[in-house]
Amino acid sequence: MAVQNGKAQSPATLMDVAREANVSIATASRVLNGSTRKVRNQSYVKVMEAATKLNYRPNAYAQAVAKGTAPSIVLLVSDISDPYFAAVSQGVVRAAAERGISVTIGVAATPHEELEAVRKAVATRPRGIIVSESEYLDAPERPELESELKQYEASGGRAVFVLNRNLPFPAVDVANDVGARAVAKLIVDSGYSRPVILKGDDAHRSSQERLAGVMDVLDAAGVAVDPKAVANGKFSRTEGYAAIMRMGRSGLLSPGEGALYDGRGVDSVIALNDVMAIGAMTALRANGLEPGKDVGVTGFGDIPYSADVYPPLTTVHLPLAEMGQAAVDSVLGKRDEGDDDRLIYVQSAPDVVLRGSLPRR
C-alpha cells in the first residue's frame, strides 16, 4: 500500500496500470496475468513500465480464478475439535503449504451440511476439495453430492475423499477391518472375554467395518457378546462417556444381579475410535472402576492424546497426518485418463500399539 502526504493509498489496480500505459485493460491483463495470447512488444514494455512505476502487485487468487482455478484447497471435516480430524487437517495444511497452496477448512457435521459446503466450495473454484467424512452409506444427499463433484471435476477441479471409497473419486484408505481384527485378537489373547463395544452409527462405513472385524474374531474365539454390551458412542468422546455412564447407572458394569454377562459384569471396553475410549475411561472411574486395572480399554486411531491419558491407551495406529498428505498429493498430482485405481493406501498392515490400558489378565 502506497503512502502519499501521510495518507495510505489503495494498492494499484489493473485498471490503474492500463490507464498509465494507455492500453486496454484486456491488454494489461494479458501481460500481467501470463496469458498465452501474444501482445505487441511495444505494449508489453509500456505495461511492465507502468506496473513498476505504480508498484503493482498482481492478485494471485484473481489470476488463478481467471485461469479456471484458485490457488487453494478446501478441506471439509465433520468436527475440527476432534483430534482425529485435527491431525488429518495438519497433514493437509503442511503438504499444501510446501507447494504454495492455501487451505480453507470447513466444518460439515451432517450429510446435508456436507452437500451445502461442497456447493459453496465449488463456487470458489479451488484446485481441489478434500472431504474427510461422508461415510454415511444411506444418506439421501449422496447422489447430489456425487453429481456436484462430477461437475466440479469436469471443469478441472479435483475431489478426494479420506476413508470413504464408496463414491467414484480417489480415496485415501486404511484397512479398517484388518485393524479391528488385530485389536480384537489382542483382547482375546490378553485374557478378556466380557467386553463392552462402543461403535458408531450403523450407517457409518468405518464403524461397520471395524465392528464386523471385532465381532468375527470374538465369535471365532468363542466369546459371546452380550447384546446389551454393544452401545452407540457416535464416535464422540461425550457420547462414549454417556454410554458407559448409562450402563453404570443401570447396574450393568460391575458384578452383581442384573449386570452384563449373567451378573459377572464387564472386563473390557472395545471402543472403535480413540475419543470414545477416552470418554469411556472417565466414565469407568466415575463408576468406581479403574481403567487398565479393573477394566481393559482399547481404542482405534492413535490420536496424539492417546499416549498422554492415564493409563496410556492401547489402540490401532492410523497414520493420520500421512493420510492428509496423501490427499493433497492426489489433488495436485497427475491423474491418468481412465485410471481406475482410485484407492490410495497409506498403511499396508495394522500397527496395534500396546499400552497400559490393556494389561494381560
Automatic annotation (TrEMBL):
PROSITE patterns (UniProt xref): HTH_LACI_1, HTH_LACI_2
InterPro entries recorded: HTH_LacI (IPR000843), Lambda_DNA-bd_dom_sf (IPR010982), Peripla_BP/Lac1_sug-bd_dom (IPR001761), Peripla_BP_I (IPR028082)
Molecular function (Gene Ontology), one example: DNA-binding transcription factor activity
SUPFAM superfamilies: lambda repressor-like DNA-binding domains, Periplasmic binding protein-like I
Keyword field contains Disulfide bond: no
Keyword terms, alphabetized: DNA-binding, Transcription, Transcription regulation
Keyword Metal-binding: no
Family annotation (SMART domains): HTH_LACI
Record domain HTH lacI-type: where: 12-67
PANTHER family: LACI-RELATED TRANSCRIPTIONAL REPRESSOR (PTHR30146), LACTOSE OPERON REPRESSOR (PTHR30146:SF153)
Name of the protein in question: Substrate-binding domain-containing protein
Organism of provenance: Bifidobacterium platyrrhinorum
